[in-house]
Amino acid sequence: MHHTKLSKRHWLLILTLSLLTFVLGTSEFVIVGILTDISSSLHMTNAKAGTLVSAFAITFAIATPLVMSATSHFPKRKWMLFLIGSFIVLNALCIISTSYIMLLVLRIMTAIVTGVLISLAMIVASETMPIKKRGLAISFVFGGFTLANVVGVPIGVVIAESYGWNATFMLTTFLGGLAFLASFFVLPTRLSQIRSSIRDQFSLMTNPRILMAFFIPALGFGATYTVFTYLVPILKGMEAPNNSISLILFGYGFISIFSNILAGKIASHNAIGRLRFVFLVQAVVLTSLFWTTNHFILGLANIGLMSLMAILLTTSTQLYLIDLAGIYQPKATGLAASLMPVASNVGIAFGSALGGIVYHQGNLMNVTWVGGIVAVCASLLTFFSHRLDQKQKKSA
């Protein structure tokens, strides 16, 4: 922990955890791309099939902190391997699903496994790396989700179109097997194991500083998804050719890879201090879409900037929550590690709902203004939290 350089062993662990999040992300996100195939195959409406997505997100948000609290004393290596094995079994069962209820139950169980594994991956990345390299390591682990959207999901959709939606779960099962093998050989045996009570864990959730930190990423993601949820209608309003929209969305995902790299750099020093201004820039970028989308090229460039700003907050807020837990409730770092993924799901749900309300009230492009306002709120909350940090340092 005193070294500042990453060894080959460190990099191997980072790549293994990134592979794990890539697999988990592909399993979580690909369902959106194959919903119509599922609804057609199982003879139900698209709206009913859509509950597979919402049920996953709700379960993820509720169950992750609960399970992390209850299992905080479990040996991390054995627990992670068991969960990856469970993920493989659940995805394999999805292949042979013949009813909506069966698939729904399997997706709910997969959501629980996914949420806990993501949290554990973040803890392992945080506690096994040199202090100055934690931001870089966690940005790589988050990068697995970005690659899942850019690479994993499109491959899964192509497989579904060619061989049926069940075949997509063959892909996630196979990827799960690869993640299990890599984790079995690479995960360290000596990982922290803190025994704490449920009371210790949930005392963290009543701490005002933790709650404040939780809503920073929730608002940050909310700002993006107020607009991103309705990006396709916006592109159609820009008169983008129908056959180019999927290419533009791919470009959006590709640019987010660089957003993830920058997130690690922001987190390397004075993360929350820097994040105050990142949200202000995000507000300007989102609001600018109101005007730039009147011109196709300017609009595309602005959308590219929106993607670049979208996930700059991830690494900083993940480390911030873990570090705050170290100050206020050291026995609850496991729960703290689960809060950023939960906050992102809360933000996505909030932003999508808010954008929908604005959209149905009238002018679609008003979502850009509202997204900008939410980003300003995230900035103000970050300013306030950073100020409290500085006061605490002075009084220490």
UniProtKB/TrEMBL annotation:
GO molecular function: transmembrane transporter activity
Domain called Major facilitator superfamily (MFS) profile: residue spans: 13-390
Signal peptide (UniProt feature, chain positions): none
Top-level division of the source organism's lineage: Bacteria
Record's keyword annotation contains Repressor: no
Residues spanning the membrane: 12-35, 47-67, 79-98, 104-124, 136-159, 165-189, 210-232, 244-263, 275-291, 297-322, 334-358, 364-384
Residue runs in coiled coils: none
UniProt-listed SUPFAM superfamilies: MFS general substrate transporter (SSF103473)
PROSITE patterns per record: MFS (PS50850)
UniProt cross-references to InterPro entries, sorted A to Z: MFS (IPR011701), MFS_dom (IPR020846), MFS_Efflux_Transporters (IPR050189), MFS_trans_sf (IPR036259)
Subcellular location: Cell membrane
Keywords from the named record: Cell membrane, Membrane, Transmembrane, Transmembrane helix, Transport
Its membrane topology: Multi-pass membrane protein
GO CC entries: plasma membrane
Name of the protein described by the UniProt record: MFS transporter
Source taxonomy: Bacteria, Bacillati, Bacillota, Bacilli, Bacillales
